[in-house]
Amino acid sequence: MLQVTEVRVRYAETDQMGVVYHANYLAWCDIGRTDLIRALGGMTYAELEREGTALAVVEAHLRYVKPARYDDLIRVTTRVTEVRSRVVRFDYEINIADGGLIAIGYTTLVAMTREGRGSCIPEHLRQQLDRVRVNA
Amino acid sequence: MLQVTEVRVRYAETDQMGVVYHANYLAWCDIGRTDLIRALGGMTYAELEREGTALAVVEAHLRYVKPARYDDLIRVTTRVTEVRSRVVRFDYEINIADGGLIAIGYTTLVAMTREGRGSCIPEHLRQQLDRVRVNA
Amino acid sequence: MLQVTEVRVRYAETDQMGVVYHANYLAWCDIGRTDLIRALGGMTYAELEREGTALAVVEAHLRYVKPARYDDLIRVTTRVTEVRSRVVRFDYEINIADGGLIAIGYTTLVAMTREGRGSCIPEHLRQQLDRVRVNA
Amino acid sequence: MLQVTEVRVRYAETDQMGVVYHANYLAWCDIGRTDLIRALGGMTYAELEREGTALAVVEAHLRYVKPARYDDLIRVTTRVTEVRSRVVRFDYEINIADGGLIAIGYTTLVAMTREGRGSCIPEHLRQQLDRVRVNA
Q1: Catalytic residue chosen out of the listed positions C15, C35, C71, C72
Q2: Which DSSP string corresponds to B22-70?
Q3: A15 lies in a domain?
Q4: Does C23 reach chain D within 8 Å, measured CB to CB?
Q5: ipTM score
Q6: Which CATH number goes with the domain that contains B54?
Q7: What is the DSSP string of D103-119?
Q8: Which structural domain, as residue segments, surrounds residue D55?
Q9: Exposed/middle/buried for A111, CB within 10 Å: 0-12, 13-18, 19+?
Q10: What is the pLDDT of residue B98?
Q11: D11: chain C residues, CB-CB within 8 Å
Protein backbone atom coordinates (compact mmCIF):
# COMPACT_ATOMS: atom_id res chain seq x y z
CA MET A 1 0.00 0.00 0.00
CA LEU A 2 1.12 3.49 -0.86
CA GLN A 3 -0.37 6.35 1.08
CA VAL A 4 -0.31 9.57 -0.92
CA THR A 5 -0.81 12.78 1.04
CA GLU A 6 -0.76 16.30 -0.31
CA VAL A 7 0.37 19.36 1.61
CA ARG A 8 0.79 22.88 0.33
CA VAL A 9 4.01 24.61 1.41
CA ARG A 10 3.30 27.25 4.07
CA TYR A 11 5.08 30.59 4.23
CA ALA A 12 6.06 29.67 7.80
CA GLU A 13 7.99 26.69 6.40
CA THR A 14 10.33 28.72 4.20
CA ASP A 15 13.68 30.14 5.28
CA GLN A 16 15.83 32.98 4.03
CA MET A 17 17.34 30.75 1.33
CA GLY A 18 13.87 31.03 -0.25
CA VAL A 19 13.17 27.32 0.15
CA VAL A 20 11.57 25.05 2.73
CA TYR A 21 13.71 24.73 5.87
CA HIS A 22 15.00 21.15 5.98
CA ALA A 23 13.56 20.29 9.43
CA ASN A 24 10.01 20.86 8.20
CA TYR A 25 10.11 17.80 5.94
CA LEU A 26 9.95 15.68 9.10
CA ALA A 27 6.55 17.19 9.94
CA TRP A 28 5.36 16.23 6.44
CA CYS A 29 6.55 12.66 6.99
CA ASP A 30 4.59 12.69 10.25
CA ILE A 31 1.45 13.72 8.34
CA GLY A 32 2.14 10.97 5.81
CA ARG A 33 2.27 8.18 8.40
CA THR A 34 -0.73 9.60 10.28
CA ASP A 35 -2.72 9.44 7.04
CA LEU A 36 -1.47 5.94 6.32
CA ILE A 37 -2.63 4.73 9.74
CA ARG A 38 -5.97 6.49 9.22
CA ALA A 39 -6.33 4.77 5.83
CA LEU A 40 -5.92 1.34 7.48
CA GLY A 41 -9.42 1.89 8.79
CA GLY A 42 -8.84 0.93 12.41
CA MET A 43 -7.77 3.28 15.17
CA THR A 44 -6.38 6.61 14.08
CA TYR A 45 -3.03 7.58 15.55
CA ALA A 46 -4.83 10.12 17.76
CA GLU A 47 -7.00 7.32 19.15
CA LEU A 48 -3.98 5.07 19.63
CA GLU A 49 -2.38 7.72 21.87
CA ARG A 50 -5.61 8.24 23.78
CA GLU A 51 -5.65 4.48 24.39
CA GLY A 52 -2.20 4.80 25.94
CA THR A 53 0.29 3.85 23.21
CA ALA A 54 2.53 6.39 21.51
CA LEU A 55 4.88 5.74 18.62
CA ALA A 56 8.09 7.66 19.30
CA VAL A 57 10.60 8.41 16.55
CA VAL A 58 13.94 6.79 17.36
CA GLU A 59 15.63 7.31 14.01
CA ALA A 60 15.13 9.68 11.10
CA HIS A 61 16.94 9.97 7.81
CA LEU A 62 16.36 12.36 4.94
CA ARG A 63 18.12 12.90 1.65
CA TYR A 64 17.24 16.22 0.02
CA VAL A 65 17.34 16.16 -3.78
CA LYS A 66 15.79 19.46 -4.88
CA PRO A 67 14.35 22.38 -2.92
CA ALA A 68 10.66 22.90 -2.25
CA ARG A 69 9.29 26.42 -2.46
CA TYR A 70 6.48 28.44 -0.94
CA ASP A 71 3.01 27.48 -2.23
CA ASP A 72 4.30 24.35 -4.00
CA LEU A 73 1.90 21.44 -3.78
CA ILE A 74 3.85 18.59 -2.18
CA ARG A 75 3.03 14.90 -2.49
CA VAL A 76 4.26 12.63 0.29
CA THR A 77 4.16 8.92 -0.54
CA THR A 78 4.42 6.77 2.58
CA ARG A 79 5.07 3.04 2.83
CA VAL A 80 5.45 0.66 5.78
CA THR A 81 8.78 -1.09 5.30
CA GLU A 82 9.35 -2.90 8.58
CA VAL A 83 7.07 -4.20 11.31
CA ARG A 84 8.18 -5.87 14.52
CA SER A 85 6.42 -6.29 17.84
CA ARG A 86 7.67 -2.93 19.13
CA VAL A 87 9.05 -1.24 16.03
CA VAL A 88 7.67 0.09 12.77
CA ARG A 89 9.53 1.81 9.97
CA PHE A 90 8.00 4.09 7.37
CA ASP A 91 9.68 5.15 4.13
CA TYR A 92 8.81 8.39 2.38
CA GLU A 93 9.16 9.75 -1.12
CA ILE A 94 8.46 13.44 -1.38
CA ASN A 95 7.61 15.02 -4.73
CA ILE A 96 6.42 18.34 -6.01
CA ALA A 97 2.97 17.48 -7.33
CA ASP A 98 3.68 18.66 -10.87
CA GLY A 99 7.42 18.21 -10.70
CA GLY A 100 10.04 15.75 -9.68
CA LEU A 101 11.38 14.06 -6.60
CA ILE A 102 12.57 16.42 -3.89
CA ALA A 103 13.45 14.10 -1.01
CA ILE A 104 13.45 10.54 0.25
CA GLY A 105 13.69 9.36 3.80
CA TYR A 106 12.58 7.05 6.53
CA THR A 107 11.71 7.14 10.19
CA THR A 108 11.78 4.29 12.68
CA LEU A 109 9.36 4.42 15.58
CA VAL A 110 9.00 2.39 18.76
CA ALA A 111 5.87 1.84 20.80
CA MET A 112 5.83 3.49 24.23
CA THR A 113 3.45 3.76 27.12
CA ARG A 114 2.27 7.17 28.24
CA GLU A 115 5.00 7.04 30.89
CA GLY A 116 7.67 6.57 28.25
CA ARG A 117 8.43 2.91 28.82
CA GLY A 118 8.85 0.52 25.88
CA SER A 119 5.69 -1.28 24.91
CA CYS A 120 4.21 -3.39 22.13
CA ILE A 121 2.35 -2.12 19.11
CA PRO A 122 -1.29 -3.12 19.76
CA GLU A 123 -1.82 -6.45 18.01
CA HIS A 124 -4.60 -5.29 15.67
CA LEU A 125 -2.56 -2.35 14.39
CA ARG A 126 0.59 -4.47 14.09
CA GLN A 127 -1.28 -6.92 11.86
CA GLN A 128 -2.72 -4.15 9.73
CA LEU A 129 0.71 -2.57 9.31
CA ASP A 130 2.24 -5.93 8.49
CA ARG A 131 -0.37 -6.60 5.81
CA VAL A 132 0.55 -3.42 3.89
CA ARG A 133 4.30 -3.76 4.45
CA VAL A 134 6.55 -3.59 1.38
CA ASN A 135 10.31 -3.84 1.03
CA ALA A 136 12.31 -0.67 1.70
CA MET B 1 11.13 44.51 37.66
CA LEU B 2 12.35 44.17 34.11
CA GLN B 3 13.42 40.77 32.94
CA VAL B 4 15.93 41.01 30.09
CA THR B 5 16.46 37.86 28.05
CA GLU B 6 18.71 37.43 25.05
CA VAL B 7 18.09 35.06 22.17
CA ARG B 8 20.04 34.74 18.95
CA VAL B 9 17.91 34.48 15.81
CA ARG B 10 17.95 30.93 14.44
CA TYR B 11 18.04 30.12 10.74
CA ALA B 12 14.88 28.08 11.31
CA GLU B 13 13.11 31.27 12.39
CA THR B 14 13.66 33.15 9.12
CA ASP B 15 11.32 33.12 6.14
CA GLN B 16 11.77 33.79 2.46
CA MET B 17 11.39 37.54 3.02
CA GLY B 18 14.83 37.22 4.65
CA VAL B 19 13.52 38.21 8.08
CA VAL B 20 12.12 36.42 11.13
CA TYR B 21 8.66 34.97 10.50
CA HIS B 22 6.21 36.95 12.62
CA ALA B 23 4.79 33.98 14.56
CA ASN B 24 8.19 33.22 16.05
CA TYR B 25 8.17 36.38 18.18
CA LEU B 26 5.53 34.69 20.33
CA ALA B 27 8.00 31.95 21.24
CA TRP B 28 10.50 34.65 22.30
CA CYS B 29 7.84 36.25 24.51
CA ASP B 30 7.27 32.82 26.02
CA ILE B 31 11.01 32.56 26.84
CA GLY B 32 10.86 36.07 28.32
CA ARG B 33 8.06 35.25 30.76
CA THR B 34 9.62 31.87 31.64
CA ASP B 35 12.84 33.68 32.56
CA LEU B 36 10.92 36.31 34.54
CA ILE B 37 9.19 33.59 36.58
CA ARG B 38 12.55 31.83 37.10
CA ALA B 39 14.06 35.14 38.28
CA LEU B 40 11.36 35.47 40.96
CA GLY B 41 13.24 32.73 42.75
CA GLY B 42 10.28 30.49 43.61
CA MET B 43 8.90 27.72 41.43
CA THR B 44 10.00 27.73 37.81
CA TYR B 45 7.24 27.56 35.23
CA ALA B 46 8.25 23.94 34.53
CA GLU B 47 7.74 23.11 38.21
CA LEU B 48 4.43 24.98 38.26
CA GLU B 49 3.13 22.73 35.49
CA ARG B 50 4.44 19.60 37.19
CA GLU B 51 2.52 20.73 40.29
CA GLY B 52 -0.63 20.81 38.18
CA THR B 53 -1.14 24.44 37.15
CA ALA B 54 -0.61 25.66 33.60
CA LEU B 55 -0.79 29.24 32.38
CA ALA B 56 -2.60 29.21 29.03
CA VAL B 57 -2.37 32.15 26.63
CA VAL B 58 -5.84 33.62 26.05
CA GLU B 59 -4.81 36.79 24.25
CA ALA B 60 -1.75 37.88 22.31
CA HIS B 61 -0.94 41.14 20.61
CA LEU B 62 2.17 42.15 18.70
CA ARG B 63 3.13 45.31 16.84
CA TYR B 64 6.09 44.81 14.52
CA VAL B 65 8.25 47.90 14.06
CA LYS B 66 11.35 46.71 12.23
CA PRO B 67 12.41 43.28 10.98
CA ALA B 68 14.78 40.96 12.82
CA ARG B 69 17.32 39.02 10.80
CA TYR B 70 19.21 35.75 11.03
CA ASP B 71 21.97 35.72 13.68
CA ASP B 72 20.80 39.04 15.22
CA LEU B 73 21.09 39.10 18.98
CA ILE B 74 17.61 39.88 20.29
CA ARG B 75 16.81 41.37 23.69
CA VAL B 76 13.36 40.65 25.08
CA THR B 77 12.36 42.87 28.01
CA THR B 78 9.42 41.41 29.94
CA ARG B 79 7.26 43.10 32.57
CA VAL B 80 4.26 41.91 34.59
CA THR B 81 1.51 44.46 33.97
CA GLU B 82 -1.59 42.86 35.45
CA VAL B 83 -2.19 40.26 38.16
CA ARG B 84 -5.54 38.88 39.21
CA SER B 85 -6.47 35.68 40.98
CA ARG B 86 -6.69 33.75 37.70
CA VAL B 87 -5.07 36.06 35.18
CA VAL B 88 -1.64 37.50 34.55
CA ARG B 89 -0.53 39.81 31.76
CA PHE B 90 3.01 40.25 30.53
CA ASP B 91 4.19 43.10 28.31
CA TYR B 92 7.19 42.74 26.03
CA GLU B 93 9.60 45.10 24.34
CA ILE B 94 11.80 43.42 21.77
CA ASN B 95 15.03 45.06 20.60
CA ILE B 96 18.00 44.13 18.51
CA ALA B 97 20.80 44.10 21.09
CA ASP B 98 22.89 46.73 19.33
CA GLY B 99 20.02 48.37 17.48
CA GLY B 100 16.58 49.73 18.01
CA LEU B 101 13.14 48.55 18.93
CA ILE B 102 11.72 45.87 16.67
CA ALA B 103 8.42 44.95 18.34
CA ILE B 104 6.18 45.47 21.33
CA GLY B 105 3.40 43.25 22.54
CA TYR B 106 1.60 41.59 25.38
CA THR B 107 0.08 38.26 26.25
CA THR B 108 -2.64 37.53 28.77
CA LEU B 109 -2.65 34.12 30.44
CA VAL B 110 -5.11 32.30 32.65
CA ALA B 111 -4.41 29.59 35.18
CA MET B 112 -5.72 26.13 34.29
CA THR B 113 -5.66 22.68 35.81
CA ARG B 114 -4.08 19.82 33.93
CA GLU B 115 -7.58 18.93 32.73
CA GLY B 116 -8.04 22.36 31.21
CA ARG B 117 -10.44 23.82 33.76
CA GLY B 118 -10.04 27.36 35.07
CA SER B 119 -8.02 27.57 38.25
CA CYS B 120 -6.26 30.09 40.47
CA ILE B 121 -2.65 31.14 40.21
CA PRO B 122 -0.96 29.51 43.23
CA GLU B 123 -0.96 32.12 46.01
CA HIS B 124 2.82 32.32 46.46
CA LEU B 125 3.41 32.93 42.74
CA ARG B 126 0.54 35.42 42.56
CA GLN B 127 2.08 37.47 45.34
CA GLN B 128 5.52 37.38 43.74
CA LEU B 129 4.07 38.49 40.40
CA ASP B 130 2.09 41.23 42.08
CA ARG B 131 5.18 42.54 43.84
CA VAL B 132 7.01 43.10 40.51
CA ARG B 133 3.98 44.41 38.65
CA VAL B 134 4.30 47.71 36.81
CA ASN B 135 1.79 49.68 34.76
CA ALA B 136 1.34 48.64 31.15
CA MET C 1 -16.52 37.51 0.77
CA LEU C 2 -15.64 34.84 3.30
CA GLN C 3 -12.72 32.60 2.56
CA VAL C 4 -13.04 29.26 4.34
CA THR C 5 -9.89 27.17 4.60
CA GLU C 6 -9.46 23.86 6.33
CA VAL C 7 -6.30 22.62 7.98
CA ARG C 8 -5.82 19.50 10.03
CA VAL C 9 -3.83 19.96 13.24
CA ARG C 10 -0.34 18.50 12.91
CA TYR C 11 1.44 16.69 15.72
CA ALA C 12 4.25 19.22 15.32
CA GLU C 13 1.80 21.96 16.27
CA THR C 14 0.93 20.56 19.69
CA ASP C 15 2.75 21.35 22.91
CA GLN C 16 3.07 19.55 26.23
CA MET C 17 -0.23 21.02 27.44
CA GLY C 18 -1.74 18.63 24.86
CA VAL C 19 -3.13 21.45 22.75
CA VAL C 20 -1.95 23.52 19.79
CA TYR C 21 0.82 25.95 20.76
CA HIS C 22 -0.60 29.46 20.50
CA ALA C 23 1.96 30.81 18.02
CA ASN C 24 0.88 28.28 15.40
CA TYR C 25 -2.50 29.94 14.92
CA LEU C 26 -0.65 32.76 13.15
CA ALA C 27 0.53 30.34 10.48
CA TRP C 28 -3.10 29.23 9.96
CA CYS C 29 -4.14 32.88 9.55
CA ASP C 30 -1.37 33.19 6.97
CA ILE C 31 -2.80 30.21 5.05
CA GLY C 32 -6.27 31.80 5.29
CA ARG C 33 -5.23 35.08 3.69
CA THR C 34 -3.10 33.28 1.07
CA ASP C 35 -6.18 31.28 0.08
CA LEU C 36 -8.34 34.41 0.05
CA ILE C 37 -5.91 36.14 -2.32
CA ARG C 38 -5.81 33.00 -4.50
CA ALA C 39 -9.63 32.96 -4.60
CA LEU C 40 -9.70 36.53 -5.94
CA GLY C 41 -8.54 35.01 -9.21
CA GLY C 42 -5.70 37.41 -9.98
CA MET C 43 -2.13 37.04 -8.87
CA THR C 44 -1.46 34.56 -6.08
CA TYR C 45 0.52 35.85 -3.12
CA ALA C 46 3.50 33.81 -4.35
CA GLU C 47 3.33 35.62 -7.72
CA LEU C 48 2.94 38.98 -5.97
CA GLU C 49 6.23 38.42 -4.16
CA ARG C 50 7.95 37.24 -7.33
CA GLU C 51 6.78 40.50 -8.95
CA GLY C 52 8.53 42.38 -6.15
CA THR C 53 5.85 43.23 -3.59
CA ALA C 54 5.63 41.59 -0.19
CA LEU C 55 2.94 42.07 2.42
CA ALA C 56 4.64 42.25 5.82
CA VAL C 57 2.71 41.73 9.04
CA VAL C 58 2.92 44.87 11.20
CA GLU C 59 0.29 43.96 13.75
CA ALA C 60 -1.26 40.72 14.97
CA HIS C 61 -3.91 40.08 17.55
CA LEU C 62 -5.41 36.80 18.68
CA ARG C 63 -7.97 35.91 21.31
CA TYR C 64 -8.00 32.22 22.22
CA VAL C 65 -11.38 30.89 23.26
CA LYS C 66 -10.98 27.11 23.41
CA PRO C 67 -8.01 24.84 22.73
CA ALA C 68 -7.43 22.99 19.47
CA ARG C 69 -6.11 19.45 19.62
CA TYR C 70 -4.04 17.11 17.48
CA ASP C 71 -5.85 15.80 14.39
CA ASP C 72 -8.75 18.27 14.80
CA LEU C 73 -10.04 19.62 11.52
CA ILE C 74 -9.78 23.39 11.78
CA ARG C 75 -11.78 25.89 9.73
CA VAL C 76 -10.26 29.33 9.24
CA THR C 77 -12.70 31.96 7.97
CA THR C 78 -10.88 34.99 6.58
CA ARG C 79 -12.31 38.40 5.69
CA VAL C 80 -10.73 41.60 4.34
CA THR C 81 -11.71 44.34 6.78
CA GLU C 82 -9.57 47.31 5.75
CA VAL C 83 -7.89 48.33 2.51
CA ARG C 84 -5.73 51.40 2.02
CA SER C 85 -3.09 52.21 -0.57
CA ARG C 86 -0.34 50.54 1.49
CA VAL C 87 -2.23 48.63 4.15
CA VAL C 88 -4.61 45.69 4.27
CA ARG C 89 -6.20 44.11 7.32
CA PHE C 90 -7.58 40.59 7.50
CA ASP C 91 -9.87 39.29 10.24
CA TYR C 92 -10.03 35.62 11.15
CA GLU C 93 -12.48 33.36 12.87
CA ILE C 94 -11.11 29.95 13.73
CA ASN C 95 -13.41 27.03 14.44
CA ILE C 96 -13.12 23.33 14.96
CA ALA C 97 -14.93 21.97 11.91
CA ASP C 98 -17.50 20.01 13.90
CA GLY C 99 -17.26 22.12 17.02
CA GLY C 100 -17.33 25.69 18.13
CA LEU C 101 -15.26 28.82 17.90
CA ILE C 102 -11.70 28.46 19.14
CA ALA C 103 -10.12 31.83 18.30
CA ILE C 104 -10.62 35.18 16.63
CA GLY C 105 -7.99 37.60 15.50
CA TYR C 106 -6.69 39.97 12.90
CA THR C 107 -3.45 40.87 11.20
CA THR C 108 -2.52 44.14 9.55
CA LEU C 109 -0.06 44.03 6.68
CA VAL C 110 1.84 46.71 4.76
CA ALA C 111 3.18 46.50 1.24
CA MET C 112 6.97 46.44 0.95
CA THR C 113 9.51 46.23 -1.84
CA ARG C 114 11.97 43.36 -1.90
CA GLU C 115 14.46 45.72 -0.22
CA GLY C 116 12.06 46.30 2.68
CA ARG C 117 10.96 49.84 1.83
CA GLY C 118 7.31 50.86 2.07
CA SER C 119 5.41 50.47 -1.17
CA CYS C 120 1.88 50.47 -2.55
CA ILE C 121 -0.33 47.44 -2.93
CA PRO C 122 -0.47 46.85 -6.71
CA GLU C 123 -3.57 48.65 -7.99
CA HIS C 124 -5.31 45.58 -9.43
CA LEU C 125 -4.98 43.65 -6.15
CA ARG C 126 -5.98 46.67 -4.08
CA GLN C 127 -9.21 46.98 -6.08
CA GLN C 128 -9.94 43.27 -5.75
CA LEU C 129 -9.39 43.39 -2.00
CA ASP C 130 -11.53 46.49 -1.69
CA ARG C 131 -14.37 44.83 -3.58
CA VAL C 132 -14.57 41.95 -1.04
CA ARG C 133 -14.00 44.15 2.01
CA VAL C 134 -16.48 43.87 4.87
CA ASN C 135 -16.64 45.66 8.21
CA ALA C 136 -14.48 44.29 11.03
CA MET D 1 37.85 20.80 17.60
CA LEU D 2 34.64 20.29 19.48
CA GLN D 3 32.13 23.09 19.46
CA VAL D 4 29.88 22.95 22.51
CA THR D 5 26.68 24.98 22.35
CA GLU D 6 23.97 25.20 24.96
CA VAL D 7 20.29 25.74 24.26
CA ARG D 8 17.43 25.67 26.72
CA VAL D 9 14.37 23.73 25.55
CA ARG D 10 11.54 26.09 24.62
CA TYR D 11 7.90 25.39 25.35
CA ALA D 12 7.27 25.82 21.63
CA GLU D 13 9.54 22.84 20.97
CA THR D 14 7.53 20.35 23.02
CA ASP D 15 4.70 18.20 21.71
CA GLN D 16 1.77 16.47 23.32
CA MET D 17 3.95 13.48 24.27
CA GLY D 18 5.49 15.92 26.76
CA VAL D 19 8.90 15.81 25.07
CA VAL D 20 10.70 17.76 22.38
CA TYR D 21 9.24 17.14 18.91
CA HIS D 22 11.85 15.21 16.91
CA ALA D 23 12.12 17.70 14.05
CA ASN D 24 13.34 20.44 16.38
CA TYR D 25 16.66 18.67 17.00
CA LEU D 26 17.63 19.64 13.45
CA ALA D 27 17.36 23.32 14.38
CA TRP D 28 19.69 22.68 17.33
CA CYS D 29 22.20 21.01 15.00
CA ASP D 30 21.95 24.09 12.80
CA ILE D 31 22.81 26.30 15.81
CA GLY D 32 25.72 23.98 16.61
CA ARG D 33 27.33 24.27 13.18
CA THR D 34 26.68 28.04 13.06
CA ASP D 35 28.54 28.39 16.36
CA LEU D 36 31.34 26.15 15.14
CA ILE D 37 31.81 28.32 12.04
CA ARG D 38 31.70 31.45 14.23
CA ALA D 39 34.37 29.94 16.51
CA LEU D 40 36.70 29.45 13.53
CA GLY D 41 37.18 33.20 13.68
CA GLY D 42 36.72 33.98 10.00
CA MET D 43 33.43 34.77 8.30
CA THR D 44 30.30 33.88 10.23
CA TYR D 45 27.74 31.80 8.38
CA ALA D 46 25.54 34.91 8.10
CA GLU D 47 28.41 36.75 6.36
CA LEU D 48 29.06 33.75 4.12
CA GLU D 49 25.49 33.92 2.83
CA ARG D 50 25.69 37.68 2.38
CA GLU D 51 28.82 37.09 0.28
CA GLY D 52 26.76 34.79 -1.95
CA THR D 53 27.46 31.24 -0.73
CA ALA D 54 24.89 29.16 1.12
CA LEU D 55 25.42 25.72 2.63
CA ALA D 56 22.31 23.65 1.90
CA VAL D 57 21.53 20.49 3.82
CA VAL D 58 21.44 17.51 1.46
CA GLU D 59 21.34 14.74 4.04
CA ALA D 60 20.33 14.52 7.67
CA HIS D 61 20.35 11.61 10.06
CA LEU D 62 19.34 11.49 13.70
CA ARG D 63 19.17 8.68 16.23
CA TYR D 64 17.09 9.53 19.29
CA VAL D 65 18.24 7.85 22.49
CA LYS D 66 16.28 9.54 25.28
CA PRO D 67 13.69 12.31 25.26
CA ALA D 68 14.43 15.95 26.00
CA ARG D 69 11.93 17.92 28.05
CA TYR D 70 10.79 21.49 28.45
CA ASP D 71 13.32 23.75 30.19
CA ASP D 72 16.11 21.14 29.99
CA LEU D 73 19.51 22.65 29.30
CA ILE D 74 20.77 20.92 26.16
CA ARG D 75 24.41 20.64 25.13
CA VAL D 76 25.09 20.18 21.41
CA THR D 77 28.63 19.05 20.60
CA THR D 78 29.48 19.62 16.95
CA ARG D 79 32.42 18.28 14.96
CA VAL D 80 33.49 18.61 11.32
CA THR D 81 33.89 15.08 10.00
CA GLU D 82 34.27 15.54 6.25
CA VAL D 83 35.47 18.39 4.04
CA ARG D 84 35.55 18.36 0.27
CA SER D 85 35.60 21.21 -2.23
CA ARG D 86 31.80 21.43 -2.30
CA VAL D 87 30.72 19.33 0.66
CA VAL D 88 31.04 19.48 4.42
CA ARG D 89 29.68 17.07 7.01
CA PHE D 90 29.03 17.87 10.64
CA ASP D 91 28.44 15.27 13.36
CA TYR D 92 26.46 16.06 16.48
CA GLU D 93 26.18 14.62 19.93
CA ILE D 94 23.30 15.99 21.93
CA ASN D 95 23.22 15.70 25.72
CA ILE D 96 21.16 17.00 28.57
CA ALA D 97 23.63 19.26 30.37
CA ASP D 98 23.40 17.42 33.67
CA GLY D 99 22.29 14.12 32.23
CA GLY D 100 23.14 11.66 29.55
CA LEU D 101 23.19 11.38 25.80
CA ILE D 102 19.87 12.04 24.12
CA ALA D 103 20.71 11.95 20.41
CA ILE D 104 23.45 11.62 17.83
CA GLY D 105 23.32 12.63 14.22
CA TYR D 106 24.98 14.20 11.23
CA THR D 107 24.11 16.54 8.41
CA THR D 108 25.85 16.84 5.05
CA LEU D 109 25.79 20.21 3.34
CA VAL D 110 26.76 21.39 -0.14
CA ALA D 111 27.81 24.86 -1.18
CA MET D 112 25.36 26.71 -3.43
CA THR D 113 25.17 30.09 -5.08
CA ARG D 114 22.30 32.43 -4.24
CA GLU D 115 20.60 31.11 -7.38
CA GLY D 116 20.77 27.54 -6.11
CA ARG D 117 23.52 26.24 -8.37
CA GLY D 118 26.31 24.06 -6.99
CA SER D 119 29.38 26.01 -5.96
CA CYS D 120 32.63 25.63 -4.03
CA ILE D 121 33.11 26.29 -0.33
CA PRO D 122 35.18 29.51 -0.23
CA GLU D 123 38.84 28.46 0.01
CA HIS D 124 39.57 30.18 3.34
CA LEU D 125 36.60 28.55 5.06
CA ARG D 126 37.35 25.17 3.48
CA GLN D 127 40.88 25.27 4.92
CA GLN D 128 39.62 26.30 8.34
CA LEU D 129 37.07 23.49 8.35
CA ASP D 130 39.68 21.00 7.19
CA ARG D 131 42.05 22.02 9.98
CA VAL D 132 39.48 21.15 12.67
CA ARG D 133 38.21 18.03 10.94
CA VAL D 134 38.10 14.81 12.97
CA ASN D 135 36.99 11.31 12.04
CA ALA D 136 33.28 10.56 12.18
Answers
A1: C15
A2: TTHHHHHHHHHHHHHHHHTTS--HHHHHHTTEEEEEEEEEEEE-S---T
A3: yes
A4: yes
A5: 0.96
A6: 3.10.129.10
A7: EEEEEEEEEEETTS-B-
A8: 3-131
A9: buried
A10: 83
A11: 15-16, 21
